[in-house]
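Researcher: Structure prediction, please.
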Amino acid sequence: MKKNRYLLCLLLAGMLLYFAVPRLTINVDGAQGIFSLTWLAFALMVIAGNLTGLLYSPKKTRKMPTGRLKKKSRSYY
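Model: Predicted structure follows.
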């Protein structure tokens, strides 16, 4: 279930980057350039965090029964 959330967040962050990167101007002095660099840094942190969660999540292990199951004995009368 968590993997679906990580994948969804990655896709949304990629979509936001796709629309925002052409509109952001990095080489401008002042608040606009600082905002652009900060926004890109936070977007890359979001992508890195979700990618880390997706790749390094623990795998589910199936628990095997420890004892043998008793077979029911059949009796014919």
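Model: Residues 2-15+29-55 form one domain.
Researcher: Thanks, that helps.
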